Amino acid sequence: MPWRACLGLVYVLACAALLIGPLLAFLIGTARGGAFADFTAPNAAEQERLTGLFWVNVRIALGATTLAVLCGVTVALSIHRARGAWRKILAAVYPLPLLLPPTVVTIAWTHLIGKRGLAAMLWRDWTGAEQLPFSMYGEAGSAWVLGLCFFPLVTMSTLVGLRAVGPTSTLAARVHASPWRRWWGIDTPLLLPYVSAGAICVAWLSIGDFEVPPVLLLNTYTLQIYAAIKSFELAKALLLCLPLLGATALILGLRQLLVRGSAEATLDDHWRAQTAPPDPVRGGRLLPVAALAVLLLAVLAPVASLAHQSTGWPKLRLGLQTAGGQVWNSFETALGAAALALVVGAPYAWLLATRRGLIRAALALLACVPLAIPGTIHGLAWSEALQLTPWGRELLTAPVVVSLAAAARFFPLSVFLLAAAFAGLHPGLDAAARVAGAGLVRRGWTIHLPLLYPGLLAAFAIVYALAVGELACSILINPVGFMTLPVRLSSLLHFGQDELLAALCLVQIFMSWIPYLAAAALLERVLEVKLG
Amino acid sequence: MAERLRVEGLVKRHGRRTVLEGLSFSVAEGEVLALLGASGSGKTTALHAVAGLDRPDAGTIALDGTTVFGPRAWTPPEKRGVGVVFQGQMLWPHLSVTEHLRFVLNAQGVSRGEQALRISAQLEAVQLTGRDRSIPAQLSGGERQRLALARALVGRPRLLLFDEPCANLDATLKSELLALLAKLRLEQRLTAVYVTHDAREALELSDRIAVLDGGKILQSGTPSELLRAPAGPAVARLLEAGSLLSGTLDAAGGCMTEIGTLETSGLEGRPAGTRGVVYIRPDAVELAEDGALSGTVTRTIPDGAGWVALLNAGSPPLRLRLSQAPETGSRVRFRLRGPATAWLS
After folding, report:
1. Contacts of A274 in chain B (CB under 8 A)
2. Is B254 left (phi over 0), alpha (psi -120 to 50) or beta?
3. Which residues contact A376 (CB under 8 A, 6 or more apart)?
4. In three state form, how does the secondary structure of B90-159 look?
5. What percent of chain A has a predicted confidence (pLDDT) above 70?
6. Across the strands, what pairs with B63?
7. d(C-alpha A6, C-alpha A317), whole Å
8. Predicted structure pTM score
9. Which of A151, B10, B53, B70 could be cross-linked to B23 through a Cys-Cys bond (beta carbons 3.0 to 4.6 Å apart)?
10. A532 and B138 in contact by Cβ < 8 A?
11. Partner B, chain A 441-460, Cβ-Cβ below 8 Å
12. Do residue A438 and residue B135 have CB atoms under 8 angstroms apart?
C-alpha cells in the first residue's frame, strides 16, 4: 500500500477514535458490566409507546427542518441580493439564534407566547379570553423553536451555494423562462446540494434534541433515553439510540438521492458571483420583508423577551459580576472546540470531497454519528471512556475535555461545510500551481488556503457558535470547579431564577456574538481586499 | 537538433475505455508540435501525462533524455520544468497579475531582483504592462489569456504545453493570441506541444502536426506534407483543407463521383465497383471551360483577392477560386491538377 494511503488510513482511524471511540468504549464497558445481559426487552405495549414517541421526534425534526429551510433560504436570498449597510446588518444578525442554547430560546418564547406570557396578557386585555387562540406547547411549539434556533445553518449553507452557483448559470434561463420557472428549473437544482447540507444538520440536531420538548411539556423519545440514563439503565439508553442512528443514515441517504446529478459549481464561478450584479427580478420586494419577518421572529422576539425578563441593567450587571469566570470558560472552550474541529476536520473534509462511492458514504456516515446521538449520551460516553485510563481520568479534570467533546460532537458541521468548500475548488487551479513548480506547502499556503478561507472561517464560526451554547454534553463532563455559562444557565433554570437567567442569556448572546461579528468582518475584509 | 521530449507507447485507460493506445511521438528542441484531434481523441490526456498531471498506465516519457515517467520512474509535475497554458486558463482568482508570475518564480527560488526584471520583461512581452495589480476578474478575456501565457513562460520552461488555448475566445482575440504566439515563438525559440481541434491553429503555428484519433497517432508530418497527402479520410476531415467525395471505381480505373469521373491514386489494382473516398486538395482545383468535371455554385464568398465558390458536392463543399463572382445556382466546369487521392470507404 502506498505511504499516502497508509497515512490516510491512519488519519481516518484516528478520527474514528475521536468520533465514535468514546461511544464504543462506553458500549463495551456497559456490556462488560453485564447491563445488556440484565436487559429485558420491553413488552408490546412499551414497544408501541416507544414507537409512538419516536415518531413524535421524527415529526418535530420534520417540522423544524421545514421551517428552518423556509426561513434559512429566505434570509440567505435576502442577504445575497442586499447591498451596503442592509446586507451587513442582515449578515451580522441572522446567526444570533444559533448562539443560544435552545432551552433558553424556549424559555424566551414561553415568556412571550406561553400560557402566562406577554402575548397572552395582551390578548386577555384585548379580548377577555383566558388563552391565546394557539398553543406553543407540544410538537408544533417544539418544531417552531428548534426551526428558529437552527435556521442559520441553512442560511449559511445556502449563502455558500448562492456564491458558488452565481448568476451566470441563470442568465441563459432568463431569456426563456419566467422568474418562478427559472427558480424551480435552474436555481433550485443548483442550490439543492447546499440547502440540503444545512437542512440535514437541522434534522440531525432536532431529532436528537431533548432540551426543548420538556420545557414545552412534551414527552419525546429522546427524553426516554435521558430517563434511562438517570435510572442507570445504560443498556436501554444505548439501545434506544439505535433508531436515531438509523434515522441519521436515512436522512443522509435521502440527501444523496436528492442531490444526485446536481451540478457542482467551481470556485471560478464563486469569485465571479462576488462581482456580478444581483438578479434584479428574483423575489421583488417580498423577499426583504419576509427576511425581516424571519429575523424579527427568530432574533428580536427572544432577545426582547429576555431583556424584558431581566428587568434591566442592575440584573445585567449582577449577571456579569457573578458569571465573569463562566463567560470566559465558555469563550475559551468554544474557541478550542472550533479550532480543534477545523484542524482535525479539514483533512477529513478533503477526503470526503475527493472520494466517491462506498468510501465516501462510509466517511460521511462515520462523521455524523456524534451529531446523531443525543448530547447526553455523547457526554456520558466521553466521561465513561475517559474513566477507563489514568491519563483519561487526568484529562477529565482539565477544561480541555469540554472542548474535545464539543469538537467531536459538532465535527460533522465543520466537515460538511469544509467538504463543500473543497469540492468547489477547481482541480485545475492546483494543477496550474503544480506545473509552475510549487510543492505541497507552497500550494497549500498560497493557493488553497486563500481560496478556502471563506469555507474555513464559516466552519470555524459554526462550531464556535454551537459550542458556546452547548449544554447536553458539557453538563456531564465539566471538570470539578469549572463551569461554562450554559451549565450555569441550566442550573438557574432549575432553581427558577428567571431574572438572573434572562440577564445571563443576554450576556451569553453578546459574548458569543462579538467574536462572531469580528470573524465575519475579517472575512468581509479579506474578500474585499482579494477582489479589489 | 537535440530531442527535448520523447513519448513512447503511452497507454491510459479510464475503466474499460482506452483513452491512449500506445501513443508515441517526439519533439525536438525549438520545435512546435501540434496534436490535432477531435474531442475525445486523447490529446488533453496525452498533454496531462507529459505535464505529470495524469499518470498513464504504461509507456515512457523522457524530457531531455531523462525519463520522467516509466516503469520505475516518476517525476512529479512541479519537478518537470514544463509550463502549461490550460484550456480554462485556470488563473488563481485571488492573485494579481504580478502575484501570478511571482508565485512561479518563488517556487523556482529566483531572487527578488531577478524576479522584478523577469516579471517586467514578461509583462511587456505579453502586452500586460500597466495591468500588474489587477486580479483576473478585472481583466478582459484576451488579457486573462495573455496572463495565462505569461505565467507559463515566466519560469523559462524547457517545454511549453498548450491545451487548446484559443478555445472559447472570439475570432479577434484568437487572431491576436495566435499572432502573439507566433512572435514569441520567433523571439524565444519555444519548444512546445500545442493541443487543438482547430486545423487552422495547427497549420499556422506548428512545425509538425500529429493527428490523433482514438488515442493513436494517425499521421504525423509537416503541415504541407499532411495537406499534400493525408493518410486517410479521418486526417483529411480534421485538416479541413480539402474536400471529400464518395465514389466508385469504374472498369477503366477512374473514380465516378457526383462531379464526374476523376483520375485517382491509391486504389490501383482494386476491382471495378469498389467504393472509395476521394480527397481533393484545395489547390488542385482549377476553373476550365473544357473541364470534364462540373458542379453547381451554392454560395460565393469574397476573400479579398477574388471569390471562392462553394459547389454542391463534397464534405466540406468543394471550393473553387474565381476572379469574378459567379451567380449562385450557375453551373461551372473545372478540372483537377493531377490525380486525386482515394481510399477505400
Report:
1. 137
2. beta
3. A210, A225, A226, A229, A472, A473, A476
4. CCCCCCCHHHHHHHHHHHCCCCHHHHHHHHHHHHHHCCCCCCCCCCHHHCCHHHHHHHHHHHHHHCCCCE
5. 87
6. B5, B66
7. 55
8. 0.71
9. B10
10. yes
11. 442, 446-447, 450-451
12. no
**Mean pLDDT for chain A overall:** 78
Among residues A424, A377, A382, A418, the alpha carbon closest in space to that of A401 is found at A382
Q: What is the dihedral of CA B29, B34, B39, B41, to 10 degrees?
A: -60
At residue B34, the 3 state secondary structure works out as strand
| CA–CA gap between residue B151 and residue B143 (Å, rounded) | 12
Cβ atoms of residues B176 and B148 within 8 Å: no
Residue B108 C-alpha, separation from nearest chain A C-alpha, in angstroms: 6
Q: Do A271 and B53 touch (CB under 8 A)?
A: no
Cross-chain residue pair A435–B84, CB shorter than 8 Å: yes
Answer whether B78 sits within 8 Å of A271, measured CB to CB: no
Residue B338 touches partner A, C-beta closer than 8 Å: no
Instruction: Chain A: give the shortest CA distance to residue B74, in Å.
Output: 14
Contact residues on chain A for B52, CB-CB shorter than 8 A: 434-435
Are residues B86 and A444 in contact, defined by beta-carbon separation less than 8 angstroms? no
Kindly report the nearest CA distance between residue A89 and chain B, in angstroms: 26
B237 at interface of A, judged by CB pairs closer than 8 A: no
Whether the ipTM is more than 0.85: the answer is no
**Can you tell me the distance from the alpha carbon of A359 to that of A348, in angstroms, rounded to the nearest whole number?**
12
Cβ–Cβ contact B182 with A under 8 A: no
Residue type, A515: P
Of A128, A127, A145, which is closest to residue A136 (Cα–Cα)?
A145
Query: Between chains, do B93 and A271 touch, taking CB under 8 Å as contact?
Result: yes
Q: How confident is the model at residue B192 (pLDDT cuts 50, 70, 90)?
A: very high
Residue B208 pLDDT class (50, 70, 90 cuts): very high
Q: Which residues of A touch B88 (CB under 8 A)?
A: 268, 426, 428
Residue length of chain B:
345
pLDDT band at A279; cut points 50, 70, 90: very low
Model pLDDT, residue A209? 83
Distance CA B188, CA B160 (A): 12
Report d(CA A338, CA A411) in Å as an integer: 9
For residue B324, what is its C-alpha cell? 469574378
Residue A69 binned pLDDT confidence (cut-offs 50, 70, 90):
very high
Place of cell 469580528: A518
Any CB–CB contact under 8 A between B78 and chain A? yes
Which domains does chain A possess? 11-523 (1.10.3720.10)
DSSP class of residue B315 equals: B
- Closest Cβ opposite residue A446 in set B53, B103, B138: B103
